[in-house]
Design a protein that fits this description.
Blueprint (H helix, E strand, L loop, with lengths): L1 H8 L4 E5 L6 H13 L3 H5 L1 E5 L13 H14 L3 E5 H4 L4 H8 L3 E8 L7 H9 L5 E7 L3 H9 L7 E6 L4 H5 L24 H7 L10 E7 L7 H11 L4 E7 L3 H11 L1 E6 L13 E2 L1 H6 L4 E4 L5 E4 L2 H9 L9 E5 L3 H12 L3 E5 L3 H10 L3 E2 L10 E6 L21 E6 L8 H8 L3 E3 L1 H17 L5 H20 L1
Parallel strand pairs: 1-2, 2-3, 3-4, 4-5, 5-6, 7-8, 7-9, 10-12, 13-14, 13-16, 14-15, 16-17, 17-18
Antiparallel strand pairs: 9-11, 11-12
Length: 487
Amino acid sequence: MWGQLRQALDVARTIELRLDWLSDDAEIAKFLALLRAGRTTRTARATFIATCRRREAGGKFGGTIAKQLVHLAEAITAGCAWYDLEIESSSKCPPELLDVLLGEGRQIASAHFFQRRPKNLRRVAADLAHVQPAVIKIAAQCDSLAESMDVLRVARGRKNVIAIPMGEVALPARVLALREGSALAYAPVENATAPGQATLEAMKHLYRADALRRKTRVYGVIGDPIRHSLSPVMQNTGFQARKMDAVFLPFLVRDLRDFLRAIRPFGISGFSVTIPHKQSILRHLDDCDPMAAAIGAVNTVVVRGAGKLYGYNTDYVGVLRALERRIPLRGSRALIFGAGGAARAVAFALAESGASVCICARRMAQAKALARAVEGEAVERPRLRREFFDAIINATPVGMYPHSANSPLSAAELNCRLVFDSIYRPRTTKLLQLAGRRGIETVSGVEMFVAQGTAQWEIWTGERAPEAAMRRAVLHALRNEEKIAVR
């Protein structure tokens, strides 16, 4: 904890000390002694919040309320200006006792709902304010973007409210919490203390959560799953390189209508679309680029005046840029494995370039339909072992992190000059490893990912994308992941 505190002091001025995460009373006493003895100019500039949350309220402290209050009192003596006391404890303590023990500190009265968001958040806020704390805090599990915005609304127009939407779906709302009026937003140095938290590094440097304003333009990527996406790294790097007041967020979207209803409240200006929404988003658009309409899949949406949605597909741009540098596409024979939204973009891009397109997929009915759309050929999987192609392209998610040990095709099915995997995470997929062992040229999905992403960035901003900086950021993130995996 002391090591994490030193890391936090490098980037944050307000730091919560979760004393309940220490193993016992002796460890708490030892840490507070370090805090008391280790006062420096750097620590003196920081504001510390002491928290010793009991198990009843979702924390880790197993002691009595009396012992909890003693630890908080010791923390105030050690230099903590604030303390957080959950309603489960404060409701059982006479105000006079709190004033005697903790009167030197300022109270955050908190309520946590880890299972579901309460229906009447204003009633919760009123109950917390009853003990007249300096600040009230409400943290609630949110299963939709609508619920996460409801939590943030509690803080609007009030300076003494901390609003925390919890859960994976609520991560964008956590990032926007300060912009929406919450007095604080929380981020862990290493140990997540609630579901859906972004790391301190991400909150401070990737999303710049403390610099976002009401006029900051909001963009994002929607999908399920979405945590794996490096789109926020790439797109935010572009915004920062061009010094734009904009942020790009990951939206876990299980219910597309929930996201569409959140566009206006979140102030979203545009978004990218990934699995499984590339085709289903079409019926919610007001208009669409002719190429995207022909492909039947959209990966880029611009939000125009009055909330009108206009769709594009930049995946085909990524395919062309990734492949045309390696092989002459006109007259080549290319096999696409897959028949979903990504496969459709690849198929149309290759067909437009004059390639002979073959489609193989787990569902042959889909493969045949896509083959007809591009005047290509549907290929049964058993034929792959005896036929030759100039290029084989994987357009399925098989082999994507965290299932990196899987490959959509076996080594015996890779009879070609070049294998291109549209997956970029990991950079070298199992499929590419199999191809490499057979001496086949390989192309990583990073090429397509960066190309389609910079095209998106330019559609949204109307400016030339800083492609080199965006590519470096993606490669740096992937290399760091690979180092961690090796360890």
